[in-house]
Amino acid sequence: MNAPLAQAVALEDTSTAFDHPEFSGHEQVVFAHDPASGLRAIIAIHNTRLGPALGGCRMWGYRTSREALTDALRLSKGMTYKNALAGLPLGGGKSVIIADPKTEKTPELLKAFGRHVERLAGGYITAEDVGITAADMELIASQTGHARGTEATGLGDPSPYTALGVFTGIQAAVAHKFGTSHLTGITVSVQGLGNVGYGVCRYLHAHGAKLVVSDIHEPNVKRAVAEFGAQPIDPHQAHAADVDVYAPCALGATINAATIPQIKAKVIAGAANNQLQTPEDGVKLMQRGILYAPDYALNAGGVISVALATSSKDDAMVREKTLAIGDTLTAIFKRADREGLPTSVVADKLAEERLMAG
């Protein structure tokens, strides 16, 4: 390696969160470490103007700590906008644990993470996300009073409410784009068949939609094929399927300069966070006549459940609030049409207006 290149790598490796292109005015970024359990985690608090920062904990086998920081910062800012748009008295934050959830997850590691959350004294409230199960949250909650989505703090697993909100949002997007809320005969490519993605498939199938499904875990695909009569597709080709709706329900950034020209769907509406790799991608979708349902507006059902529910008696209230996601999206679509702006820009503007009003 030549000297200038070595110096550049060194500078990148030692740069701080302040230098990161996704920093975006974060209030606090915590790097959490526990040698005994092997915990390496990042907790990012973006904005607490409306209240304490609420956002899930993601466990993923990031290749580098820089990659993990990028994810934490982008997800944290997204939670600020998601909570504001959902009308919740909460700020935005997110945490990531750098570990493979299938091979490196241990009770000791999860408890260590819970202790780090507790040290923040309520400034950050954690919940379930990719790689973290409802059972994992119970372990985390054993070490902190600032965890949600547990049996003791409300309705437990939030993923069914996320799935309901995404389905409702798909209905709203189909109605706006195609002039009908009926899904019979509508084809949907669902990319990612975790708890949320599979729940979305169940709703879509029950309402007559035809499914194209993909996941990196083959058993999930086989299950969907058997239960829903779905057509399997390679996960790397899910965005390019010849369908009406593309529903990314796995990780983010699947909508980018490389994939946008290949997208045949006229609607993009899915559960994944940070689906657009860059803000410019929202403009490109509008230019191609593709209706994009902004992810943080669409997938807010889970955060609504963990934020508002205090017992199982709150199920009906949470469902009613989650179903209102369709109305929020319809308002975004109509405003985007009036102002000639991408839906992603309009959603940001609406969230920022609510932040300023708060």
Primary descriptors:
358 residues; alpha/beta; six-stranded mixed beta sheet; six-stranded parallel beta sheet; 13 helices; 12 strands; 44% helix; disordered N terminus
Description:
With 358 residues, this protein is α/β, with parallel strands linked by helices. The chain has 13 helices and twelve strands. Strands 1, 2, 3, 4, 5 and 6 form a six-stranded mixed β-sheet that branches. Helix 12 (325-339) crosses helix 13. The radius of gyration is 20 Å and the shape is globular. The chain starts with a helix and ends with a helix. Residues 1-14 have low confidence and may be disordered.
Concise overview:
The protein is an alpha/beta fold and 358 residues long. Helix content is 44%, strand content 15%.
Give the SSE map.
Elements: H1 3-14, E1 28-34, E2 39-47, E3 53-54, E4 57-60, H2 65-85, E5 91-98, H3 107-119, E6 124-125, H4 134-141, H5 159-178, E7 187-191, H6 195-206, E8 210-214, H7 218-228, E9 231-232, E10 245-248, E11 267-268, H8 280-287, E12 291-292, H9 295-298, H10 301-308, H11 315-323, H12 325-339, H13 343-357
Parallel strand pairs: 3-5, 3-6, 4-5, 7-8, 7-10, 8-9, 10-11, 11-12
Antiparallel strand pairs: 1-2, 2-5
